[in-house]
Design a protein that fits this description.
With 111 residues, the chain is mainly alpha-helical. Helices cover 72% and strands 0% of the residues. It is built from 4 helices and no strands. The longest helix is centred in the first third of the chain and has 28 residues.
């Protein structure tokens, strides 16, 4: 089942994320990861605790930081419209709009 889900994900990914956005994600992660790795290795060297385990942990943490940095990249066009909730009909939306118009009108005359 996992294999089927992964195949569907890979088949649908180009439809959902453009090539330009994917390149931006890779560039951001490939810049952040080495910077974090170098910073962590410098901290390890300054604390005189250089070992294979500390360097491996630094590499793992740097890879995680690079992957985490991808979360902050915008993938859609600016002003991407969010579709309305399908369960809310237009009558409900109109009623809410009327309520807020009435509330704003009533507050404007108050001191």
């Amino acid at each position: 089942m996992f294999r089927l889900g992964w195949q569907v994900f890979r088949a649908r990914l180009p439809e959902l994320v453009s090539d330009r956005d994917r390149r931006r994600l890779v560039v951001v992660a490939s810049i952040v990861a080495p910077v974090v790795f170098v910073a962590l290795v410098v901290v390890v060297v300054l604390t005189d605790d250089v070992s294979v385990a500390s360097v491996a942990a630094s590499a793992a943490y740097a890879a995680a930081a690079g992957a985490f940095s991808m979360l902050f990249c915008r993938l859609g066009p600016k002003g991407w419209s969010i579709p309305a909730v399908p369960s809310i009909g237009w009558r409900t939306q109109d009623a809410v709009a009327r309520y807020y118009r009435r509330s704003a009108a009533g507050r404007s005359g108050a001191p």
